[in-house]
Amino acid sequence: MHGKRIVNAYKTVDKMQSYSLKDAVKLVKENAKAKFDETIDLAINLGVDPKHADQMVRGVCSLPHGNGKTVRRESD
Question: What is the C-alpha separation between 10 and 27, in angstroms, rounded?
Answer without folding.
Answer: 11
